[in-house]
Design a protein that fits this description.
Elements lengths: L10 H17 L6 H12 L13 H10 L3 E5 L6 E5 L1 H11 L5 E3 L1 H8 L6 E5 L4 E5 L7 H4 L2 E3 L4 H12 L4 H10 L5 H11 L3 H22 L7 E3 L8 H4 L5 H13 L3 H5 L5 H4 L2
Antiparallel strand pairs: 1-2, 3-7, 4-5, 4-6
Length: 282
């Protein structure tokens, strides 16, 4: 949301908008360089942003104060004198709490599947009339403009690896180095999952991934001006409830349970599933 008031926003409001901008750019796989962040921040605030009006001699000093407050993490850019900006775990949690409904609410399973699952032979679209996701073969894509469907661009492997790097920036250095090294492995997603398991960071990573995917979907909703609630409510079972202790018994029940579980897995978890070669020969 853009600030429209003619009055200069408070520093707290500016910092809040900063975390939103950085989060959204990360979710969309855009550059995290401070120069780009400042430009978008100025647009979001509805006026030309001037850090000097808040007592900072440069935008770098402004970012350093945001980092001191635990809102962002800044690190040297790969090239040039600029810096990259990432949202801290503290700020990401605050943004998630503000944008995610309370209770047992999750990203809608159909949206999650459409954005996270790759299938080169299928294009997915949001049909605003039927309020549902539909799938098309690539040969049918030409008819999309006539039907007014909204294209869905699946999250790429490089975007997920970018989130993995951002997540690594939020943990202690001893953990960070192991996570970053895992991304150089021949099977980076599987190795990253193994490392998070070994270092007991799996729950944190899953929350980070969930928030990142939700951010990407919200950015898509905003960009296409859609009236769409991306969340759904699921029953949260207690460990001692009858349904929680129940186990599927028939082959049909087992297949449904597995399919339901796989549909909620993150992309790295999917890519980490070991598949026997003999199954690929069928």
């Amino acid at each position: 949301m853009t600030v429209t008031s003619t009055e200069r926003p408070t520093l707290e409001t500016v910092f809040e908008k900063l975390t939103e901008v950085v989060q959204e750019r990360a979710a969309q796989g855009l550059s995290q360089r401070s120069a780009g962040v400042k430009s978008v921040l100025a647009t979001r605030l509805g006026s030309a942003f001037d850090e000097k009006a808040y007592g900072f001699g440069s935008f770098r000093r402004f970012l350093e104060e945001a980092e001191r407050r635990g809102l962002v993490i800044i690190s040297p850019a790969a090239t040039g004198p600029d810096v990259d900006v990432a949202v801290s775990t503290q700020a990401r949690t605050a943004l998630a709490a503000k944008s995610t409904p309370a209770g047992g609410s999750w990203v809608r399973s159909d949206l999650w599947h459409a954005f996270v699952h790759w299938d080169a032979g299928t294009r997915r679209f949001w049909d605003s009339t039927r309020r549902a996701i539909i799938e098309r073969n690539p040969t049918e894509v030409e008819a999309v403009a006539e039907e007014g469907l909204v294209p869905i661009q699946a999250i790429t492997a490089e975007e997920v690896k970018g989130w993995m790097r951002d997540f690594a920036a939020t943990v202690p250095d001893t953990v960070k180095s192991a996570l970053l090294e895992s991304l150089d492995d021949a099977s980076p997603f599987r190795r990253f999952r193994q490392v998070t398991d070994d270092l007991q960071r799996t729950r944190e990573w899953r929350r980070y991934m969930q928030t990142s995917v939700a951010g990407a979907i919200r950015a898509w909703v905003t960009e296409n001006d859609l009236d769409l609630n991306i969340y759904e409510t699921r029953a949260v079972e207690r460990p001692d409830s009858p349904t929680a202790s129940a186990r599927p018994s028939t082959e049909e029940d087992i297949r449904k349970t597995v399919q339901n579980y796989v549909s909620r897995m993150t992309l790295p978890e999917l890519l980490a599933i070991p598949v026997p070669v003999r199954l690929l020969q069928r």
